């Protein structure tokens, strides 16, 4: 059972994916101008990996990647947000079968489906779960953490909508479509 | 872009001699206590204790100063934000109100309770940070993966973590190469560009990085498959070390600490220590 779930390719995808997540999360963030808020490109990448490799890989890339990023660059993992990164990866990954990116088709219908899923997941993750955990674990003021969560959630939604969709369509183009060959007469 | 990052520092010290499993377990216990408690006495004790362990480990403050500086800035901003958003949070928690300085008719008045609350928030970080730093710089990455497996994480996931640690420097180098070559073509990622343009330019670096990483995945998984990875239910680790006496003593000490600090924190039914 377990062996079917975690193929070698998925394991490697988790490892390399987490490494890329760390590097993007550290070096490829674009400040918006408002202090402490960034367009974090690593979430666009996380969405791509979740759609290609499925929920388990997506969840673990988010979890391991975020924990390592926090630990290596900031000294200590911020657990409440690490957990949410994992959840976001996992739940976006649930759309894998429906989108079936390996088929090489990423049309308007699938783009809409992908974005609906990611908006719902990001909204619940960053605006509800992350601040609630912050209050429970760190006992920070409620209005502060919810504002942080809403800002982070909106930014992540925009990043995934722009970058995630772009990455997925590029990836889809690199896959061969079935029946794309025509016979020369 | 020579950004410093935390990595393993080789030393000869008692902390280094502990097995990775012990350090991982101790770190988990430590984080749990620091997460659950808000009791000033426990926090102060943990803080002093962690400074003491730091001394024993022979790691110099200078070697981790860049992270500490960053955390201090973060804490300052965080503290200011807490005060701006909720200047009477302390009053709400401790239930009394001692005004020190009256500003703006009440809401932003400086109270003793608020100061104490924010002192606790700050202290909470200071108890976790030295422990986390220490765990990172005294644990060999390969041994870390072995330890994860030892405490019950599936070895496949432990191996994924090892892969991530192994490939972070490689990917960082790739990122740097791609970024420099794109900049040579006139793509600007710095503050001088408009935000929308910067997002587009960032994509021109990220896309090659991701595509090359996807190729890497293919290559590595083929290599692992050829070597029969995942065939057996268990695997051995080159870096795994057997438990010594010192490991058992340390673990006992930490478990006692966990129980005592949780008892002190919760025996009056509140995770905050109230001196007022």
UniProtKB/TrEMBL annotation, chain A:
Bilayer topology term: Multi-pass membrane protein
Transmembrane parts of this sequence: 6-29, 41-66, 78-99, 111-133, 145-171
UniProt cross-references to Pfam families, sorted A to Z: ECF-ribofla_trS (PF07155)
Family: Belongs to the UPF0397 family.
Chief site of localization: membrane
Coiled coil: none
Localization (cell): Cell membrane
InterPro entries the record matches: ECF_substrate-spec-like, UPF0397
Organism listed in the record: Neobacillus paridis
Superkingdom classification of source: Bacteria
NCBIfam families on file: PRK13661.1
Keywords: Cell membrane, Membrane, Transmembrane, Transmembrane helix
Protein name (Swiss-Prot/TrEMBL): UPF0397 protein JK635_20940
UniProtKB/TrEMBL annotation, chain B:
Membrane spanning residue stretches: 27-54, 66-85, 115-137, 248-266
Subcellular locations according to the entry: Membrane
Domain of life from the UniProt record: Bacteria
Keywords: Membrane, Transmembrane, Transmembrane helix
Main location: membrane
Membrane topology: Multi-pass membrane protein
Statement: the UniProt record of this protein carries the keyword Membrane: yes
Classification via Pfam families: CbiQ (PF02361)
Matching CDD domains: EcfT
InterPro entries: ABC/ECF_trnsptr_transmembrane (IPR003339)
PANTHER family linked to this entry: ABC TRANSPORTER PERMEASE (PTHR33514:SF1), PROTEIN ABCI12, CHLOROPLASTIC (PTHR33514)
Protein name stated in the entry: Energy-coupling factor transporter transmembrane protein EcfT
């Amino acid at each position: 059972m377990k062996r079917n779930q975690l193929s070698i390719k998925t394991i490697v995808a988790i490892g390399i994916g987490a490494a890329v997540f760390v590097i993007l999360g550290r070096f490829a963030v674009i400040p918006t101008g408002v202090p402490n808020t960034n367009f974090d490109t690593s979430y666009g990448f996380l969405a791509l990996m979740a759609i290609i490799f499925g929920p388990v890989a997506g969840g673990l890339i988010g979890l391991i990647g975020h924990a390592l990023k926090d630990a290596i660059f900031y000294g200590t993992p911020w657990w409440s947000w690490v957990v949410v990164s994992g959840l976001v990866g996992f739940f976006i990954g649930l759309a894998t079968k429906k989108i079936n990116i390996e088929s090489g088709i990423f049309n308007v219908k699938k783009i809409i489906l992908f974005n609906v899923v990611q908006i719902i997941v990001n909204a619940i993750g960053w605006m509800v779960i992350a601040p609630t955990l912050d209050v429970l674990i760190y006992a920070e003021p409620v209005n502060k953490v919810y504002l942080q969560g809403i800002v982070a959630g909106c930014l992540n939604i925009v990043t995934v909508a722009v970058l995630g969709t772009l990455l997925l369509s590029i990836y889809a183009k690199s896959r061969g479509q079935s029946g794309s060959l025509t016979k020369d007469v | 872009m020579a950004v410093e990052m935390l990595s393993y520092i080789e030393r000869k010290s008692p902390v280094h001699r502990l097995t990775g499993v012990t350090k991982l377990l101790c770190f988990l216990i430590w984080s749990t206590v620091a997460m659950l408690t808000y009791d000033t006495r426990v926090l102060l004790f943990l803080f002093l204790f962690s400074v003491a362990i730091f001394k024993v480990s022979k790691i110099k403050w200078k070697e981790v100063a860049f992270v500490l500086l960053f955390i201090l800035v973060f804490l300052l901003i965080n503290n200011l934000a807490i005060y701006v958003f909720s200047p009477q949070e302390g009053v709400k928690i401790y239930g009394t109100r001692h005004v020190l300085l009256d500003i703006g008719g009440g809401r932003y008045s400086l109270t003793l309770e608020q100061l104490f609350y924010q002192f606790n928030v700050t202290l909470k970080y200071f108890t976790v940070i030295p422990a986390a730093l220490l765990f990172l710089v005294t644990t060999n990455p390969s041994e870390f993966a072995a330890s994860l497996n030892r405490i019950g994480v599936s070895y496949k996931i432990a191996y994924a973590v090892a892969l991530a640690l192994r490939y972070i420097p490689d990917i960082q180098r790739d990122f740097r190469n791609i970024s420099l070559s794109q900049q040579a073509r006139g793509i600007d990622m710095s503050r001088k560009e408009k935000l929308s343009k910067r997002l587009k330019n960032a994509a021109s670096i990220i896309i090659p990085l991701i595509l090359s990483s996807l190729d890497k995945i293919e290559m590595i998984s083929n290599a692992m498959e050829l070597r029969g990875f995942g065939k057996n239910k268990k695997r051995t680790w080159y870096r795994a070390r057997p438990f010594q006496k010192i490991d058992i003593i340390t673990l006992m000490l930490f478990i006692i600490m966990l129980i005592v600090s949780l008892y002190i924190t919760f025996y009056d039914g509140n995770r905050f220590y109230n001196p007022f």
